[in-house]
Write the structure tokens for this entry.
Amino acid sequence: MSSFRAPPRKGENFELAADLNSEYRDKRKDAIKRVIANMTVGKDVSGLFPDVLKNMQTEDLEQKKLVYLYLMNYAKTQPELVILAVNTFVKDTDDPNPLVRALAIRTMGCLRAEKIIDYLCDPLQKCLKDDNPYVRKTAALCVAKLYDLKPELVIENGFLEQLREMISDSNPMVVANTVAALSDIHVAAVAAGVPRDQFAITTEVVNKLLVALNECSEWGRVAILNALSRYEAEDSGESEHICERVVPQFQHANASVVLSAIKVVMIHMRGINSENVTKTLIRKMAPPLVTLLSNPPEVQWVALRNINLLLQKRSDILSNEMRVFFCKYNDPLYVKVEKLDIMVRLATEKNVDPLLSELKEYAQEVDVDFVRRSIKAIGQTAVKIDEAAERCVNVLLELIGSRVSYVVQEAVVVMKDIFRKYPSTYEGVIPTLCANLDELDEPEAKAALIWIIGEYAKKIDNADELLGIFVDTFIEESYPVQLQTLTAVVKLYLQKPESSQGLVQKVLNTATKDCDSPDVRDRAYIYWRLLSTDPGAAKAVVLAIRPPITIPRTTVSAALLDELLGEIPLLASVYHKPAETFVGRGRIGADAVPKKELADERLAAQKALQTVAAGQQAENLLDFSEDTANDGQPSGLAATTVLTSTPAAANLLSGTSSNPLDDLVSIFGSASLGASPAPPANANPLGGFGFGASPALMGASPVTPSVLQPATPVVPPQPQAPAQPTQPQDDLLGLF
Amino acid sequence: MISGFFIFNQKGEVLISRLYRTDLKRSIADVFRIQVVSNSDVRSPIITLGSTSFFHVRANNLYIVAVTKCNANAALVFEFCYRFITIAKSYFGKVDEEAVKNNFVLIYELIDEIIDFGYPQNSEADTLKTYITTESVVSSSIAAEESSKITTQATGSTNWRRGDVKYKKNEAFVDVVETVNLSMSAKGTILRADVDGHIMMRAYLSGTPECKFGLNDKLVIDKSERGASDAVELDDCRFHQCVRLDEFDSDRTISFVPPDGEFELMRYRSTTNVKLPLKVMPTVTEIGTTQVSYVVTVKTNFNNKLSATNVVVRIPTPLNTTSVDCKVALGKAKYVPAENVVVWKQVSSFAVSLLPYSCVPPVTRIPRIQGGQEVTFSGTAQLTSTTHRQVWARPPIDVDFQVLMFTASGLIVRFLKVFEKSNYHSVKWVRYLTKASGTYQIRVSGRLFFNQYHVEYGWLTSHFLMKF
């Protein structure tokens, strides 16, 4: 056989082939090990297929496993040769040793070769009814493997019905694997657009699962808890019953069991009417959540991300536990950052003092990113708790006193937010801020300071001098700084026209003539015209009083939050994004994905955009105008979109998430780009005036084509259809 | 679920690669190498690219990586990675590149057994050892009957225990190990003091013993049912999977059939009434800009029959320290320039006589601090005047120690009852240990803000001052 496949006459593979055919058992086994080692490091050993295959029939279980391992890797490349192995496999499934039977059925499911699948059904049928639970639990998962390869075969052979019966199996491990297999099939079926629910969870099933829950292995518990979370309880009593049975799992040593149990309770708690029961459940949830923090850092991080979500829904869960979130000196950065966020969430008037002294401590650490976030957290605390604002400002002043460049810059940005929230309260600090003018080299910090100067131009004696510095270097500055300078100078002029006549002229001249950003030019023209035609109107526009900012309680919209809470501790809840944004359609591969409803695609894209928008909003937490300027007005053309059927869309329409991108989405969604009304005056974080929408537009533009695409009436030819719509998600990921 | 499992070495070379599902290609390993191993700025343990997510944990010089293509259970994947490390440790001692290379056949066999189609299966090392062995001869010679026994046990409701365990002498050892987490501010206020407790058990008991475990009489496990103020309060506890959680939930009894050998029976957390075994009082004063003087006093805070052993105090010094002269009455203190710390520890009786300040009377040559004793370190660090700007994070003073027969939470094991069919007599032992390693931290005050200096000395000096 090997002769006409013409293997190389020398070299390692040739030697291996010789050894594989050796008459000595040890030599053969050793050769197989070397083949596997080569396979692992990525060398191509597929040429040895027939030689390895010869060693399959053996009494030695270890050798058998190695040969099987080889087969699993190369079966797909050598389909016509795999058929030679079938006989041994089928024979093995009749072996008196259950380990051999299970091994055979497990491996057959992994071969991924069309030819062998047809021979799989009969042995599988047998193994599903095997006396030995170990064989049965292996066979149960094999059904899921088969469904992955050829769903028709599973349905034709009635394996699904068999699996559903196996939920009543006496062995907990078999039940757990059956549940895992059915859930896997369910997910695959949903992705493939099969209308029928392949794993309907009825009251009867739930009762069986609740019994098995206490007996099976930790991994099995996770599978069962996941299935329980999909069940829709009939009444309050049933929800209560389920919660009661699941709560003991909070004490499990495995973090995934604890978090999955919390998910089930969070979901079924919605159905409980009694306020007291809900309170007790919430109270029981707190200690295990805190205990999760004594896990390894990776698990801690997953727990923290989920705690963050839970707090957005129920801010009372951990109200007394802020201290446990204090960062340890040797925590990894990703853990520290999450802890920081949670601490701010838990901040109240009572615990703000220890929090502030912690944050001040963190602001003196080495990692620049962490220091910046700590300073941001101080600002967020100030905006969140009115009573603590003054203490926060004092801490910030101390930090500015350190004169470390990035500390000062971040503190200036944060101060700007505090001015937004408490206008004219802390004017005393302005001199300190202005004293650090030379230290600033980052656009954001510069822009913030310029905004402050512009805002309080009336009270700063040398405002014209200070702004003059920026006007002199106008062309070299980045666009946000230019925009800010422009606005600030106009503000100054409107308040102190006598001293800044020249300055305003100069800046308008430079901006309109020498500046290459259309935004800056446009804004300058508008100001110019306003000032020259109607200074009164200019005053009304530029010096309008902005409503104070607040900290949004949630970083995701309410509907999305509920959805994500149902996905604890899955990746979606870790990323705070719906699964569609990072999981490609059809795990089976693009060619096998049936055509999806276009509307569905569009929805997914919208959802994705929305999350991204929400994410951005979270990042700009303290940036200006976002929610405030936009809150009152109806959300543009959003009302014309038709997608009200889903929570995400409904939420999009109700305007709960007040991000400019939402509006953009709906504008593009309705495919009437030209008809968009004046964009909301908010996308620019600082400007009191509204030309900021265009940067946002630019930011969104790579996305728009893909959003538009599904909306076009022409249905693309079917084979390509599935591949194209997957694009938006990937794009989005790349973008953000 | 888990689509692939990989082990990489430090350089990003693949040591183990196993795909469980059809949605991955082997070449995905290259993506991980490029994105994580050769990327120095990885800021998350999960990396998602397109629809592929990489979960990685580090073990010695290895990356243990699980790859998924779906909305996977993140907590489960990490727990699994750590479980793999535990299993590997119990099979071949330590987990490093060499061990993985030497045992790669065994590892393949193991990871095939503990994951099927991406779903973790039985992962109890004790049971796995009954049918996945290092000597292949054994596995082939297992009679069919024998393996059916093994498999039934491996899938049964007590899958962590073999049924045929026999000991001549039936013994059970219980170790209560408490790790104290302390974070104290420079001013001496306690920011955080809590106890992470582990109850480790080594059970050498025949048959299928039914155990019942009892803790303090005045034990409060749920905060809301707070009782007397002197009660031991546990904020939360978690149990090994052998403990019947439903029974614990209903009447607070801890009953279980233990695995054979060593295992962690229970983990708990306590934040109230924590008795801190060591009090550390640091005074750090700056003398001019070239000297910093330290006085660090450690006082033991427990019964004088007990003593603290393995005490190591790490006192961080500024980055531009040239030398530190140390004065200690007990133990030995040395400046370690590479880590920028003064390490002060108890030394063996042999080394004590070599101490420069050998005012240690011969009787107290035992390297330990007795209860109620107070020891002091004093030293002065000489600093070079540097123009070179370097940020110093001012790490906290860190104390490691062990105190035997002492629990910081006050937890006591009241009883351990063993019931078995054959009604044998069993001997039970209990030990207590309270320790800290890297968790007992006292912050050093930072004299960060001296505005008057800014004016006088400008940037350089002010930054220099920031170091203390």
